[in-house]
């Protein structure tokens, strides 16, 4: 007879089987996987404090190699992405700066592929979460592939690549419960920020509206790192790369972003796909900032520090070309998912610097792609260069190329010593001979130690509206942190940048105000280029939600449509149900979306026409659309019944709200101008 009382539940047995594999790290010394104690986990071994990093650093290689293999099969970071094909056209020859073939002649066109992405979330995360966005471009040049792999923010959290696994471990869902998905509003992320002063400036950027972009089409891109441009005379200049959207830099607001995530979690990719399909091709101008070699130490920041930007007021931005995205992918997996972007993919005329974060990425990105996509990932169509590659690489998983012949080594007689190297004076890649010297050390360069000046520069550059949004962002994010000491440490870090901001945040999240003794940055300068309030405002491709019903005023709609078409506005007709509506002149139109399938969140402005037979429910739903648009500061127009409904809820004559019972050409022009402004913050 079985003793049921003493039987151990099967689930407990499984737990006991696992217990021998449990490891408690709290209070223990840090070691490598071989149990070698680690003296420094924050700095990669380098030749001098500003020198290149050394491959012999087994601690760095173990840490990054393990990190690169932690997720399968989606990318560890930047998993949620979307791509498109296009072309880059050079404005004018840049031969005085670089030998890069695609920058030699005005009008030269180079095919490109761009992958936009989010850093934190998985492939299933919604697209409007607060997060840094990736902006990575593969140029298929005549002399090989050049990958400009960057973000929509010009700086980064850390200075040395060896800390990247720590950052992402803190950013990702917490391992004990895998919550939250794709968000930074949790304890471990803010514990990392509060424990790493070098993240202070980036902390300000991610709490700004930059991390909730309106679309990929209205988002900047930055190469982040300092690169070199080298011309045919061998003269080198330091360089930073920028992408500037022709439509301007625009963002959502926080309430809007949260709600759109529910209304359309594919909001950004849908916007990109639909506009390319319509022929509204996104455009971005490529700009460069350039510093001569002899200017390297002329600034109060280290130009190799990836937590610092180069203020455009000090180092002007020069626009050198334009990229147009003109073709959607045919298969998302084959192209967008399998594209392997790597900052180490450079061409003759572009070279690296000793930026320690860049140096780390040069190892990590290739290592990740070998693991994730496979040994022969460069042979996949989306990754192949324009011209056939020739070398002695052989075999490996999923090999696509079938090499002929018996020779697979260099210095050979049987194949006439081919494939052969190409001398530098015949076009072969030549590394810029920068001077390298110094003792092997693990330490951050003293010139990297100012962590607060640029955070203060960013804060000084914000408009009052942008500052209020940053305060709200801190209040929300830290308000989600459960540990009060983590909240308090983050507030103290903010105090180094702006004490008034820190005091306001402390009050909102229920922690003591930061001590008066915390030194606040004394930077008084600002940079207008950092404020999105100074961006381009255009009406091209903006969507107008048009609420309309049976027996709408045909003449009024015709006049409105004429003004919208001229301005590039795109109407979306919203009504009770799908189908066809008839106007007063016997004309008709097709309804695009209903009150249920559409959403005021998805339109850049609202125009209410209605109709004389609108039901009470129709009226009620229209009011909801109007109020949502108003609360998100968007333009609203109303004629006929629409004007009456807006007046009934007392919103007429408010900023950005236009109504008319007898609309004129001037009224329609005023509505177009309101659409161009996009937000009316003075409500």
From TrEMBL:
Cofactor dependence: heme
Biased composition (Basic and acidic residues): 1-27
Crosslink position(s): 3'-histidyl-3-tyrosine (His-Tyr): 342-365
Keyword Oxidoreductase: yes
Documented EC number(s): 1.11.1.6
Pfam family, one: Catalase_C
Domain Catalase core: 31-418
One GO term (biological process): response to oxidative stress
Protein name, per record: Catalase
């Amino acid at each position: 007879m079985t003793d049921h009382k003493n039987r151990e539940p099967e689930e407990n047995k499984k737990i006991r089987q696992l217990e021998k594999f449990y490891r408690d790290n709290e209070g223990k010394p840090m070691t490598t996987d071989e149990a070698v104690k680690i003296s420094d986990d924050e700095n990669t071994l380098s030749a001098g404090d500003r020198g290149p990093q050394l491959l012999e650093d087994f601690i760095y290689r173990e840490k990054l190699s393990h990190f690169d293999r932690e997720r399968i099969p989606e990318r560890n970071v930047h998993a949620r992405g979307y791509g498109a094909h296009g072309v880059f056209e050079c404005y004018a020859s840049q031969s005085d700066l670089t030998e890069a073939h695609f920058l030699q002649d005005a009008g030269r066109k180079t095919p490109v592929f761009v992958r936009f992405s989010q850093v934190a979330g998985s492939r299933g995360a919604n697209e409007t979460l607060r997060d840094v966005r990736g902006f990575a471009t593969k140029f298929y040049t005549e002399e090989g592939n050049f990958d400009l792999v960057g973000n929509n923010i010009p700086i980064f959290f850390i200075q040395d690549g060896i800390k990247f696994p720590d950052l992402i471990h803190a950013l990702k869902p917490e391992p004990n419960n895998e919550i939250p998905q794709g968000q930074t509003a949790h304890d471990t992320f803010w514990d990392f920020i509060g424990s790493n002063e070098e993240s202070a400036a980036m902390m300000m950027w991610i709490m700004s509206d930059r991390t909730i972009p309106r679309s990929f089409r209205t988002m900047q891109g930055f190469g982040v790192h300092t690169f070199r441009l080298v011309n045919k005379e061998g003269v080198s200049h330091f360089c930073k790369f920028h992408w500037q959207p022709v439509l301007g830099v625009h963002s959502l607001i926080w309430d809007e972003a949260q709600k759109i995530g529910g209304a359309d979690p594919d909001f950004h990719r849908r916007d990109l796909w639909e506009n390319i399909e319509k022929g509204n091709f996104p455009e971005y101008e490529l700009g460069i900032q350039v510093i001569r070699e002899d200017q390297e130490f002329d600034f109060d920041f280290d130009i190799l520090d990836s937590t610092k930007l180069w203020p455009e007021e000090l180092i002007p931005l020069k626009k050198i070309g334009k990229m147009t995205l003109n073709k959607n992918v045919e298969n998302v997996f084959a192209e967008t998912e399998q594209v392997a972007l790597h900052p180490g993919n450079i061409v003759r005329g572009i070279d690296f610097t000793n930026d320690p974060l860049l140096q780390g990425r040069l190892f990590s990105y290739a290592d990740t792609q070998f693991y994730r996509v496979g040994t022969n990932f460069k042979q996949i169509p989306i990754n192949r260069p324009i011209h056939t590659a020739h070398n002695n690489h052989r075999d490996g998983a999923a090999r696509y190329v079938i090499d002929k012949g018996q020779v697979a080594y260099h210095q050979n007689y049987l194949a006439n010593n081919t494939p052969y190297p190409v001398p530098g004076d015949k076009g072969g890649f030549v590394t810029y001979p920068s001077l390298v010297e110094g003792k092997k050390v693990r330490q951050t360069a003293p010139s990297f130690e100012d962590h607060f000046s640029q955070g203060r520069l960013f804060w000084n550059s914000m408009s009052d509206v942008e500052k209020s949004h940053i305060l709200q962002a801190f209040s929300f994010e830290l308000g989600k942190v459960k540990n009060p000491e983590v909240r308090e440490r983050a507030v103290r870090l903010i105090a180094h940048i702006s004490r008034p901001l820190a005091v306001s945040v402390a009050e909102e999240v229920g922690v003591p105000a930061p001590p008066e003794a915390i030194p606040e940055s004394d930077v008084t300068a600002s940079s207008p280029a950092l404020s999105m309030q100074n961006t381009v405002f255009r009406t091209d491709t903006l969507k107008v939600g048009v609420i309309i019903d049976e027996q709408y005023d045909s003449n009024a709609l015709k006049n409105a449509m004429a003004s919208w078409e001229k301005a590039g506005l795109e109407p979306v007709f919203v009504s009770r149900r799908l189908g066809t509506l008839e106007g007063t002149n016997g004309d008709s139109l097709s309804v695009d979306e209903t009150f249920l399938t559409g959403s005021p969140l998805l339109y850049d402005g609202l125009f209410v026409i209605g109709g004389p037979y609108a039901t009470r429910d129709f009226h009620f739903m229209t009011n909801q659309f109007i109020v949502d648009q108003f609360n998100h500061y968007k333009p609203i127009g109303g004629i006929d019944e629409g004007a009456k409904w807006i007046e009934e809820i007392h919103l007429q004559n408010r900023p950005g709200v236009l109504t008319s019972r007898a609309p004129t050409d001037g009224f329609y022009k005023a509505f177009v101008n309101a659409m161009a402004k996009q937000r009316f913050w003075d409500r």
